[in-house]
Amino acid sequence: SPANPLSSTQIGRSWAASLELFERTTRRYGKPEFGITDVIVDDDLVAVEENIVFSKPYCKLLNFAKLRDARKKQHKLLIVAPMSGHYATLLRGTVEAMLPYYDVYITDWVDARTVPALEGSFDLDDYVDYVTEMLQFLGPDTSVMAVCQPSVPVMAAVALMNAAKDPACPKTMILMGGPIDTR
Fold it and tell me: Is the pLDDT of residue 82 over 60?
């Protein structure tokens, strides 16, 4: 406030900036909706319905079902979104881009703070198990795309499924990460 005599001093501005930074880092942001209601497939506008098809304590699996002729079955694509403090809706553009070509599924990780302690902890082994269970749920002929942080657990899940000769093991895996420093 300009009425505060400290607001024009270096100490006052530094204190205000520190408090603003604290507020921003502790603020809880609401989860945005995907809001995908339709998509163009083969020059036709097709309605899309978002459904939860698989649920575990730390993750829900969403499907963007296209409401059209069921005879036009598409290949399944599981998009594994990062769970590290972000919402799956950050990949809305990726989902929209894949919808015309695939039957799209995406992981929607639950904020761990909201999971009751009775559900147990969640570690890398659990992450790999979740991905494996989702791929087995979706069945054969499913491709998987890991975006950034889940690349390692997805590679581990696919490697274990391949070693076990699991029929649901994906034939195609897309790993999308950040820049790689080759120095």
Answer: yes
